[in-house]
Structure formats: structure tokens, C-alpha cells
Amino acid sequence: MKFSMIFILSNTLLLLSSSAFAKIASPPSLSPTPAPAPAPDFVNLTDLLTVAGPFHTFLNYLESTKVIDTFQNQANNTEEGITIFVPKDKAFQALKKPSLSKLTDDQLKQVILFHALPHFYSLADFKNLSQTGSTPTFAGGDYTLNFTDDSGSVHISSGWSITKVTSAVHATDPVAIYQVDKVLLPEAIFGTDIPPAPAPAPTPDIAPAADSPNEKSADSKASSPSSSSHDGSSSYKIISYGIWANLALATVGVLVLL
Ligand SMILES: *[C@@H]1O[C@H](CO)[C@@H](O)[C@H](O)[C@H]1NC(C)=O
Ligand SMILES: *[C@@H]1O[C@H](CO)[C@@H](O)[C@H](O)[C@H]1NC(C)=O
Ligand SMILES: *[C@@H]1O[C@H](CO)[C@@H](O)[C@H](O)[C@H]1NC(C)=O
Ligand SMILES: *[C@@H]1O[C@H](CO)[C@@H](O)[C@H](O)[C@H]1NC(C)=O
């Protein structure tokens, strides 16, 4: 007797709960607007690089070598995403005489491809990456970069030049764009004597050959704690990137809401 009571009770409960569930479950299918539209999160690299920077020289090379299509395609169509290191216009001006102009078209394309990794890395990921040694770039083969994380500041070695990440222009999966101090010169090209270099460097260790005197004095200024006008303007710029990034994020937010 008791058993059947319990049986009936539990059955009623089951019925109640399932009908309640059905009531809860049905409305969404009737609602006319399917809210979470599969947002095509398209990042226009040309747009980003036009607004930030100035990165005009790099952008021009991206376009003249058509590498922009490779990068944009990676950003558009892969789960892996992309990480791009972008030197400012000043970094190209600081290159010594036999700069990029002496390269063949193929070499120039390799140099530009060398500035990106076929994977999205947040700044925090570089700590991890510094343990793995040589990291492949879009240029493939011997064109690898090494990363070291020096208490939060990311240093990049190409074997021929050493530089560091100075700010994050954009870092939202799947696209990361970081500003770097110098043009990344691949040892596979610059380690040979293809660009008839003026004097230097039998040993790659001493090789930050891309330094200009200008840059050196700027570096030494920056390393002193004094607040020169240089320091002020660059930190102002970094802040303004932050504002741009926030604006971009806000825009994305609004788009997603729409
Ligand atoms: C990306 O932005 C550039 C510059 O604003 C524009 O010319 C180009 O048409 C855009 N590309 C796409 C696919 O929206
Ligand atoms: C990337 O996606 C945008 C928007 O869907 C499209 O207009 C553009 O042609 C795509 N570019 C590439 C290289 O896939
Ligand atoms: C990064 O660290 C995570 C866990 O700490 C590990 O699973 C992953 O393999 C590491 N990635 C690289 C590239 O070393
Ligand atoms: C990069 O790291 C690998 C492994 O630690 C090392 O063999 C190689 O010499 C390094 N290359 C550069 C350019 O620092």
C-alpha cells in the first residue's frame, strides 16, 4: 500500500516536473529572434595597422608582397589564429644602409613573413614559449624566432637582431598584434653576405647590427630613470593605443549586441 502511494506520488512529481520542463523548454523555439547569431568575428588587419602605429612602412611591405592576404586569411579562417610583430616606421628608418632595398622580392617576402607566427599568443603565453626554444614563423624552415620572458617583458631574438615587444596593439583571440622596437632580420638571409654589409659581426652574438646610433642614444636615455621628453611621448602613445584598443573593443561589443 505504502509502496504504491510512493509510486503514484513520484510519478505525479515526474509528470509535473517534465511538464514544467516542457513549458520552460518550449518558449525559446517559438521566439522569433534567435539571439546568439554566429558572429563572424572578422578583424581587418589593414584597418588595424592603419589606425595604430605609425606602421605605414610595414603595411606597405605587407601589401607590396601580398603577404597581407596570407595573414588575413589566417586570421579569417583558422582556429590557430595569428601573432604579428610590427615594427614602427622609425625602426625601418633605423636600419643600416644595405637595408631591405637590396633584397630580392623573394627575400623581402620572407622577411615580412618572418614577422608572424601561425598561432595566437597572448602576452602571458610567451613565458611558456620561452621554454620551447626555436619557434617557427610563417616564413618556415630555418626562419625561427626565440623568445625570452624577462619578468613580464618579452624579448625576441632572430639570431641576427634582438628586440622586444613594446606594446600590444591588439590581443584578442584569434589575432594578436604586438609592436616591436626593431625590424626582425632573419639570420637565414642576413647571416649570409647577401646584403653586402658594411663591416660587422662574424659572431651573431654581438649582432644587433640593425642598431643605428640614434637608436642607441634613445635606448640609453630610456634606461635611465629620468623622464625625458622622449619617455613622455612614447608612454603617451602607448596609452593612446590602449584607448584605441578599448574603442575597438567597445565597437565590437556594440556590434555583438546588434
Ligand atoms: C579592410 O580595411 C581597409 C582599410 O580601411 C579597406 O580598404 C578594406 O576594404 C577592408 N577589407 C575588408 C575585407 O573589409
Ligand atoms: C576575410 O573576411 C572578410 C569578411 O568576411 C572578407 O571580406 C575578406 O575577403 C576575407 N579575407 C580573406 C583573405 O580571407
Ligand atoms: C604551456 O603550459 C601548459 C600548462 O602549463 C602546457 O600544457 C603547454 O603544453 C605549454 N605550452 C607550450 C607551448 O609549452
Ligand atoms: C634558440 O633556441 C634554441 C634552443 O634553445 C638554440 O639552439 C638556438 O641557438 C637559439 N637561437 C637563437 C637565435 O637564439
Shape: globular
Strand composition percent: 15-25%
Question: What's the helical proportion of residues?
Answer: 40-55%
**What's the main sheet like?**
7 strands, mixed
The whole-number mean of residue pLDDT values reads 74
Spatial gap, N to C terminus: 60 Å
Give helix and strand order, one letter per element, not per position. Answer: HHHHEHHEHEEEEEHHH
Bound ligands, each once: 2-acetamido-2-deoxy-beta-D-glucopyranose
How many distinct helices?
10
- The Cα radius of gyration reads 26 Å
Report on the structure:
The chain has 258 residues and is of the alpha+beta class. It has ten helices and seven strands. It has helices spanning 2-30, 45-51, 56-64, 67-77, 89-93, 105-113, 125-129, 187-190, 213-223, 229-257; strands at residues 82-87, 116-117, 135-136, 144-150, 153-157, 162-172, 175-180. The protein has a seven-stranded mixed sheet with strand order 2-1-7-6-5-4-3. The model is unreliable at 6-31, 195-244 and 251-256 (pLDDT under 50). Bound molecules: 2-acetamido-2-deoxy-beta-D-glucopyranose (4 copies). One of its GO terms (biological process) is plant-type secondary cell wall biogenesis. Pfam families: Fasciclin (PF02469). Residues 196-233 are annotated as: Disordered.
